[in-house]
Structures
1.
Amino acid sequence: MSGPQPRPGVLDISPYVPGDSKAQGHKEPIKLASNESSLGPSPRAIAAYRGMAERLHRYPDGASADLRAAIAKHHGLDPERIVCGNGSDELIALLTKTFAGAGDEVLFTEHAFAMYPIATLAAGAKPVVAKEKDLRTDVDALLAKVSERTRIVFLANPNNPTGSYITKDEVERLHRGLPERVLFVIDAAYAEYVTRNDYTSGMELVAKASNVVMTRTFSKIYGLAGLRLGWMYGPASVVDAINRVRGPFNVTLPAQAAGVAALADVAHVDQARTLNDHWLPWFSAEVRKLGLEAPPSVGNFVLVRFPKANGKDANAANDFLLKRGIILRKVAGYGLPDCLRVTIGLEAEMRATVEALGDFVKS
Ligand SMILES: Cc1ncc(COP(=O)(O)O)c(C=O)c1O
């Protein structure tokens, strides 16, 4: 073979398959495929974004200082230990390539978020997968897979696409079981939606441990997925390493401004959470009334499990709903071929989806 060849591992990557955004014949489809907030961004974030239009000839602040200060103030954190990123995806990739390489192992669970295997293979490291129990992280199964070569453990809590979470006690037990040289990355992309009092985003663990990083995003409850904005909180040594590796202007000018404004609009976030608190249980219950399974979720999405029967399976359901202009997410790539993932949207979107699923079941 001639010509430049990518590093080993790169061609083993199955490219990330984003949720569909089009339904043929429907100009304004109901898009419930990417866990975006149907409420949209805060009006304050939109104004801040627009306010930057005349300044686009200027580079952004490479340190995202105002945004880090706003995040730190909002969550009671040390701004020096925050790094902002072009989506938390960028931070996941940076953490992986900074702390793992050829010969190293990166550990996560069976149905974990798809960026972990991608980032691992892109870094030339080896993905190692631990079994889940009932679509939930099994701490013992993860710990049993730790080897001398393990460099990173990723935990999405809650996990996408399963919607399950592990408790603060379980997170701490997992951490206690890891050697100190292993970087423990807690991906809390959906933390703002979780209303259980035994849940932790991992923030206080970062504060007291030398090997824990928490990642967060503005793509979900803040409704800014299109801007690409995420952040991480970690030990000073990890922050220092990531700041050496990241692009010098990795977060755009309008993203920094919109992020600051979005944080200040607490009422908007509360509204998004309240909507989810109502429509997630409602939707899950309606789906179960139709005889379909909907495993418990604490995020802004829920899996729906379909029978394997021909014409009644997840693929058939997906096609049926697409024809109605409703876009759900196939999750076969996550090892869940009999499920579809449904993002919790606004009332009309949820009612239309239940009605379409009902028609599908009866068809
Ligand atoms: C668990 C999890 N982590 C990270 C992300 C990536 O978010 P971002 O838009 O910040 O890159 C997602 C998005 O789907 C996610 O589900």
2.
Amino acid sequence: MTNLPKSLRSRLAEAATFVPFRPVSEQQSSDGQTRKVLFALPDGNLIETVRMQYDRRTTLCISTQAGCAMGCVFCATGQMGFLRHLSVGEIVAQVLFFARELAAEDNRVTNIVMMGMGEPLHNYTPTLAAVDRLTDPAGFGLGARKITISTVGLVPAMRRYAEEQRQTPLAVSLHAATNEERDKLIPINRRWPVEELMEACRYYIALTGRRLTFEWALIAGENDTREQAQKLGALVQGMLCHVNLIPLNPTAGYDGGPSSHERVAAFQEELARFGVSSTVRVRRGIDIQAGCGQLRDRVILEQGNDFSQLLQ
Ligand code: SF4
């Protein structure tokens, strides 16, 4: 950029970067439809981004933090603990990395889910600033309804998000309908129990008029019984909502496994009795450890904890 003054060029060289990370490992699922990339940040932290190809859609699952403070027991990222928040640039750059790759294939990003490493609402301001850049017509220009923000239930942040009345949909990772069961899976439930969480959900729906999505990872013998389905049905009956049922992605640090097809079907049937709509989500890229945090764990296992060599 020789048309810029030399002093400005040297300031930019010191302070700015085009790509705030480098890809250090990647995996492709055997069906070729899912690709996961592990990025090394300049401080050696690792984050993951997943690209999922559907018929006409290309969805990216992006990270908002390195590690996660929420400690959900079945999640590889939760098992590693919190490392740090990502900056706006680090969140947006994950999308730009894949957008460049897709452009070369005459393809484009159609949907983004903030369901990678981290709890998006714990890193509230950078996450929402990233959404603004990604949806700005003068920026990346993606439709706001194409970006889903997920939360495990940070009630004050959910209320704040509701009050902003944004177009970006919200998904709540519920996974259990009673405090007894949810406390076991999601430690943050002890701080904001199911009753408070549901109040925040109703507040969001009332303020935005938008349908809320509940995510439910089906864990064999844990939260996939008819009784659990009935409790969920009773909890959300009549709400403007939809339930996504996702058989669990197994992780090394947790004993639970995915529910059988029969259990999934019975669960869904029970929800229908309560008039609650649900979809069974196909687990994507199970053979490439597509659950967040899993590729990082594998690379650490193989290469140790020193990532300085990965950055060279
Ligand atoms: S499931 Fe989400 S919120 Fe829970 S520990 Fe994993 S990354 Fe964090």
